[in-house]
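Weekly puzzle thread! Below is a chain. First person to post its structure in token form gets bragging rights.
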Amino acid sequence: MKFVLLDGNSFCYRAFFAIRELRNSKGQPTNAVYGFITMLEKLLKDIKPDGMVLTFDMKGPTHRHEKYEEYKAQRKPMPDDLRSQIPLIKDVVRAYRIPIFEKEGYEADDVIATLAERIKAAGHETFIATGDKDMLQLVGKSVKIVNPQKENFIYDEAAVKERFGVDPERVTDVMALMGDASDNIPGVTGIGEVTASKLIIEFGSLDALYKNLAKVKGDKLRANLEAGKEMAYLSRDLATVDRAVPIDIDVTALKRCEPDAEKLAELYREFEFRTLLKNLPSAEDKNAEDAALEYALVSDEKGFAKLVETLSKKKAWAFDFETTSVNSLLARPLGVSFSWKDKEAFYVAFTEKGPLQAKECLERLRPLFENEKIAKTGQNLKYEAMLLGSHGIELRGIAFDTMVASYCLNPAKPNHNLDDIAAEQLGIRITPITELIGTGRNEIPMEEVPLEKVWPYGCQDSDVALRLEKTLAPKLAEKDLDGLFRDIEMPLVPILGGMETAGIGLDIELLGDLSKEMEKTLAAVTKTIHKEAGTEFNINSPKQLSEILFDKLRLPMVKKTKTGASTNVEVLLELSEIHPLPKEILKFRELSKLKSTYVDALPLLINPRTKRVHTSFNQTVTATGRLSSSEPNLQNIPIRTEEGRKIRRAFVAGTKDTVLVSADYSQIELRVLAHLSGDENLIRAFKEGADIHRYTAGLMFNLPMESVSDTMRNSAKTVNFGVLYGMGAFSLAKNLNVSNEAAKDFIKAYFDRYPKVKVYLDKNLEGARKDGYVQTAFKRRRYIPEILSRDVRVKAFAERTANNMPIQGTASDIIKIAMIRIAGKLAAGKWGARMILQVHDELVFEVPKTEEKKLVAMVRAEMEGAVDFKVPMDVSVKAGPNWLDMTEAA
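Winning reply:
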């Protein structure tokens, strides 16, 4: 049998420094735990041992300290962040059912050596996992060293001899001469590893060397050896491991056992190791029968009729459609599952012919889906609502979306897929979609997956969604997030679905002309670039651009990366101050990106049925609570550049009888800051309707507003927004092109005039450090464990986030509240107008010309009345034939 003996301390240190920053949402460092687990899994995979043991050093002196007081004295104390993780790592090890050995007064190396001797005596093979070179003395026919620092490189006797030039039993003789700086073993002054190895090879041993000291060549070397004899023998004693530690060992008890999957799942949930959790075989996976899943396929008229009757009598159920596409507007439903009891579900498989055709089934289910008294639960219910909407069915009674609930609980999570949430919240592994349809080139359409695989998968989705509601709902209440969830996020689900379904018109001809125009501009810019460079080259190649800038033109290297000199935006902006080429490169990049991302891509996104573009509004992506959009991403169209504005002109009203109306919150984040901070000066400025930037400049420069120059106003504007985003003196100086001292004076002047803003921001940081999170005025949370980081850059970013999130997040909550209010008015009044876009602080509507004036008044009233804050909300409303050419609406 093969046994692995693991040096726990060595493993923990390596894991800690391999992953420098990782914490759970409570702020607990978890980098060493995560690194330890991944290294342990790799070791188990590489070696495939029959048994494993972990050893750890214990506090307190050992016999080595008694012999040499300075032993390991130079070692720095264990980092606090690592120390706090050692008990967690031991918990993981116990959950793996791996025994841990420790002995007071002895080092882990001694315990390992003793275990290796006992295992060898029992006739088994031992692999010692450690990075300590002194452990090479234990290598023999049945004992090998595995070095995790070298991709689990295995040292056998031949490898030891190649490393030191001597057999394993002479490793301590070599170390007696060379010493070991890591353990503060002195060795002999002036002798390094190469000389130490040569001497032991030449004389055979440390004892033989000192018996034949006169034969050593070199007076200085001989003198050093003579003077260091006592230290040499002491060093050998210190480096020699004890193979007879008094511990009780039953070798048969060291055999591997199956890990405690439930305990590991509990720990992984605590640490928030979602990937590890998802890949963990759970108790339910191993015992499918014990899980008692009662899933059923409904494939005939009798079964369907009975299901419809049962559903009509229930007050709540979860459901999930299986379809042919992720695009709900183009998807064809293949079947639908329902669940109203844990671990039970029914799947209706639609057929092309016969009684269970999709169209007929959906019509019979219509009264249930449209019954608002039946509470519906599901994962990503916006998709289901849009799918049903495309069949003329309005989904009512939307009660609980598991994806949205997961997002509210932790918006910083990278995704909120059902399999991830199930692993994290329920500790179970569910079948991912990729197991049915494959990935990449091997991916097949859902309609080609055999029914025997589809229906259990469909049942699983509705069943798990139902179970998740029972887990997530109490957690939302516990964290005081149920108001945010039920009053803001859930009502938004069908609204966003309606906006996506509505889409927006696109002027294809204009985009075609714009593409040709940009092509000509790009050709001209390319010509200028090549002229400035003095040669033709591939502008899109960072390597070739780097050679032109730094080798040919000899421009200063601003920033280095692993692959060479950086040519990113920041570098080019700095270099453009001393040479015209970088500025042209930036222009080329911006034009190329706009052309490929929008001008050429937008026509390809037109829905063939509606002839409109339907962006996706992502409700569960940003950590601040803001909505994002994709395919196309409307957030990133630059409004400040001429080219960006031209692209906006392509978004048009759908008919000649309609116009687009845009309603935009004015300086909402600064207004939110005024409310949250309660600063009297800031509040007064907004109440008086002052130009906030000119007002701020007047305070900062001690001038009446009419005497403030445009330059002063711009400086104040930069400071106003800089405060929101945690801009320090260095960044402010760079933005204003002033000295650091001047920037510090600006910031000081700002806080002197708005003292409560400073108090508020400081209180935010204090709360983030204490609680591990910040929140908006509507209790939306963002966890910021990184604020406790010892890494200066990581901590600085966390502090900026802590100051900005409550402001930006509150602003996003306000526009969501406004959207809910407006949607309610539109539905109640049976308007022809539709809300179609939300971008940052702006809402866009497509409105019949006959309703324009009435809608403008309604939208302004609902947006300005969305919240009752200490300052008024100001809304600018414009109307026009397209998204660019708009004039102020009355």
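Puzzle host: Confirmed. Bonus trivia for everyone else. The first strand starts at residue 2 and ends at 7.
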